[in-house]
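We both want to read discrete structure tokens more fluently, so let's practise on a single case. Would you supply a protein for us yourself, any chain you care to pick? Would you write everything just below, so we can both look at the same thing?
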Amino acid sequence: MSEPELTLHDPADLLAGYLDYYRDGVVRKFSGLSDQDARRSFVPSGWTPLGLLKHLAYMERRWMRWGFAGERVTEPWGDQKLKDGEWYVEPGETVDDVMAFFREQCSRSRAIAASAKLDDHAAVGGRFKSAAETPTLAWVLFHVLQEYARHLGHLDIVRELADGVIGE
């Protein structure tokens, strides 16, 4: 997948296009990555590529479903089961399991974003308890986009360290 078309000028289309571009980039980084490398850390902080993938899935869930849509969700912080906030992957979770969960969350996020306008405010009752603290959809989407930009860069480096694969 390539960046959105140069002719796009509608902010909603640009945000949707760039979010999908980055989401696809995450999926590409896992293509051909061994299960062993997905589960091991390449950095001093100790996070793993699989932990990062799970974090991104839960990040989508927290900001779009629980946050913007105000849906009741189980375990909105399910990627951080340990008290110190580190990303956590259950020993029995597979790359395929986490990838399927990631894709499911991305699909739901797309549907939520498509059903609203950028200046709509998040619902009260999920992540946000009062109307005074609800961000707009534009704010939420930009936040999600910056999460992807930062973490895809992390995956770029880890993938190069794992097996030398660089670029797209």
In short: The CA atoms of residues 74 and 166 lie 36 Å apart. The chain has one domain: 14-163. The mean pLDDT is 94. The two ends are 9 Å apart (CA to CA).
